[in-house]
């Protein structure tokens, strides 16, 4: 039996394109745009995202972007920024990615967020479908999951719209950013 390849040698595209979006791997210099998008969306993100509890500085967001870039190159986390393909200047809409990577099993978890002014336009579903194709077609995933707080109805709707099936609800398994006990929905799609 041959050993699994070292993940750092696995080819992962740095750019994914859809009809309306460009998903780009993180790169130095995006910190200010990232900070602005998070600041605009703090009220909507803070109930769900531990990293969105206060307005980030440009410098803090730049440090995050550089760490995400390093993690992408090392294949520890595959984060992409979501850009509007048709907007002038390719406006940063949010972020998404494949997280909790298990290269041996080929199991990945999709995560996502979108700035407030871009909500309700189908951008998240379009990005999730692009990541799902990447996972199954290029990375030979056996399993792709999406997890969210059970009361996050918008996120649940994205998973269902993208063909993920609810496998179960983990009761009282984690805490919200506010420190309250929560339930987690586990949605999944399976590969061959």
From TrEMBL:
Record domain N-acetyltransferase: where: 40-186
Signal peptide positions are: none
- PROSITE patterns recorded for this chain? GNAT
Please report the name of this protein according to its UniProt entry.
Answer: GNAT family protein
Q: Which organism is it from?
A: Roseateles albus
* Taxonomic placement: Bacteria, Pseudomonadati, Pseudomonadota, Betaproteobacteria, Burkholderiales
């Amino acid at each position: 039996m041959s050993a699994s390849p070292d993940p750092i040698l696995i080819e992962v595209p740095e750019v994914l394109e859809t009809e309306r979006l460009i998903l780009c791997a993180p790169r130095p210099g995006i910190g200010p745009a990232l900070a602005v998008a998070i600041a605009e969306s703090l009220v909507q993100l803070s109930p769900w995202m531990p990293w969105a509890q206060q307005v980030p500085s440009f410098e803090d967001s730049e440090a995050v972007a550089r760490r995400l870039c390093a993690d992408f190159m090392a294949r520890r986390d595959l984060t992409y920024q979501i850009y509007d393909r048709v907007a002038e200047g390719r406006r940063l809409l949010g972020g998404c990615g494949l997280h909790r990577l298990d290269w041996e099993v080929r199991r990945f978890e999709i995560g996502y967020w979108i700035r407030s002014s871009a909500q309700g336009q189908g951008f998240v579903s379009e990005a999730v479908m692009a990541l799902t194709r990447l996972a199954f077609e290029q990375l030979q995933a056996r399993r792709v999951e999406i997890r969210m707080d059970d009361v996050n109805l918008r996120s649940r709707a994205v998973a269902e719209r993208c063909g993920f099936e609810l496998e179960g609800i983990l009761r009282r398994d984690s805490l919200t950013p506010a420190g309250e006990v929560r339930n987690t929905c586990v949605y999944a799609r399976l590969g061959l």
